[in-house]
Design goal:
Strand content: 5-15%
Distance between the termini: 51 Å
Number of strands: 12
Largest sheet: 7 strands, mixed
Helix content: 40-55%
Radius of gyration: 24 Å
Strand order of the largest sheet: 1-2-3-4-7-5-8
């Protein structure tokens, strides 16, 4: 258990908070352990009691805390009730006990906040989302707390020497894109850090919009599209920065075959935030449904421009070609998708199916086997896909 809780060095204590099913170490050490861990942190639960006790007894020069879901994010989880819950529960504790930096993941991007402190607080806390280490990147914007954010592969390097800390965010090209230096032994350094902070009380979450958006998202998942549209519209009416709601409305109109309205809301979303991918996806779906292949391809190209680090646009281009029975260019686009994300089993399975379309059984077998090698998602629907591929391999080997 202790490995999940704290890592102490001479000048540094790092505390790791468990978050139920997101606790990777617990999942691999003992899957049965997950049955006894609630997904949400409980205000009066053992996890919080332990956290407070451990912080009260902490004497390290530097204190880091890490947990998976970010309480401060300008990425895809901004409009989540669980984010507000964690923010309201954890920040007052972390600030009270002098935590220096909080590291989070979940959103696949890099983001550093301004130092955040209460008006009567003594010491700000900086929050860093560093979910940009390997898998596909996602969009990220800016919120009141955002000092720096970027959709970029990379890592965070922290160097501590006594009272001095240097933090660098380094991208995939080994370029430093963001840097923080703080020396607790230098009054000018600590004063500048405090001067650059924002007040916790000034961060007003759009709770009403989040409630409406969450309701719409749940209804969309349940395929109650008309009701979902109502909730998404409410969310956007009270928060016109909520492009997620516009994309949700567009998706619902697509699902009920009201294509003109789907296009209208998707384009409105793009005008609001050009780098939000869901709006592009709706437009492509609409034009593919209408068999307007060139227009669908144009929007896929635009999607690729805003998300060149994701295989999604190339995957869609492959589908557009395949729908027209243009299997060779479809294969080439799928290869491009796999070059971006070479560990995605589903892409290999699709590539194998395309090879079968052109009669290349050997290449199909190699693609299917590669997909099986990378298969890791054991949700029931994906296991069914895997079983179908295994059956297909048997047929091809006859």
């Amino acid at each position: 258990e202790e490995v999940l809780k704290k890592i102490s060095f001479e000048d540094l204590k790092q505390i790791i908070i468990k978050e139920g099913e997101e606790d990777i170490l617990a999942r691999f050490r003992d899957p049965k352990l997950m049955e006894n861990i609630t997904k949400e942190l409980e205000k009066d639960g053992d996890q919080i009691s332990w956290l407070i006790e451990d912080l009260e007894n902490n004497t390290a020069e530097w204190t880091f805390v890490s947990f998976h879901h970010p309480p401060f994010t300008a990425g895809g989880n901004y409009y989540r009730k669980s984010r507000i819950y964690r923010k309201n529960l954890l920040h007052p504790i972390l600030e009270k006990y002098g935590v220096d930096i909080v590291f989070n993941g979940h959103d696949h991007d890099y983001e550093r906040t301004f130092p955040i402190v209460s008006r009567d607080g003594k010491k700000p806390v900086t929050y860093i989302v560093c979910g940009n280490g390997g898998t596909m990147m996602r969009y990220v914007g800016k919120r009141k707390w955002t000092l720096y954010s970027e959709r970029v592969f990379g890592f965070v390097l922290v160097d501590i020497s006594g009272s001095r800390l240097n933090l660098k965010s380094v991208n995939i090209n080994n370029e430093v894109i963001d840097e923080l230096t703080l020396d607790k032994g230098d009054p000018q350094s600590t004063a500048a850090y405090r001067e650059n902070s924002i007040f916790y009380e000034d961060i007003i979450d759009p709770v009403e919009a989040i409630n409406y958006y969450s309701a719409g998202d749940d209804l969309l998942d349940e395929e109650n599209y008309e009701e979902a549209i109502v909730e998404f519209k409410k969310a956007y009416n009270v928060d016109t920065t909520c492009v997620e709601a516009l994309a949700g409305i567009a998706e619902c109109f697509y699902e009920i075959q009201k294509f003109n309205k789907a296009v209208y809301y998707a384009k409105q979303g793009i005008r609001k935030m050009y780098n939000y991918p869901d709006s592009y996806e709706v437009l492509i779906d609409v034009y593919m449904e209408k068999k307007e292949w060139n227009t669908a391809m144009d929007w896929a190209q635009k999607w690729l421009q805003i998300a060149p680090d994701s295989p999604d646009a190339n995957e869609v281009m492959s589908e557009i070609y395949a729908e027209q029975e243009k299997y060779n260019p479809a294969i080439e686009e799928m290869k491009k998708a796999l070059k971006i994300q070479p560990a995605e089993a589903g892409l290999y399975f699709q590539l194998g199916q395309l090879y079968e379309k052109v009669g290349d059984s050997n290449s199909a077998l190699r693609a299917y086997q590669k997909g099986l090698d990378w298969f890791m998602d054991y949700k029931p629907k994906n296991v069914k896909k895997k079983d179908k591929i295994l059956s297909r391999i048997k047929e091809l080997k006859k």
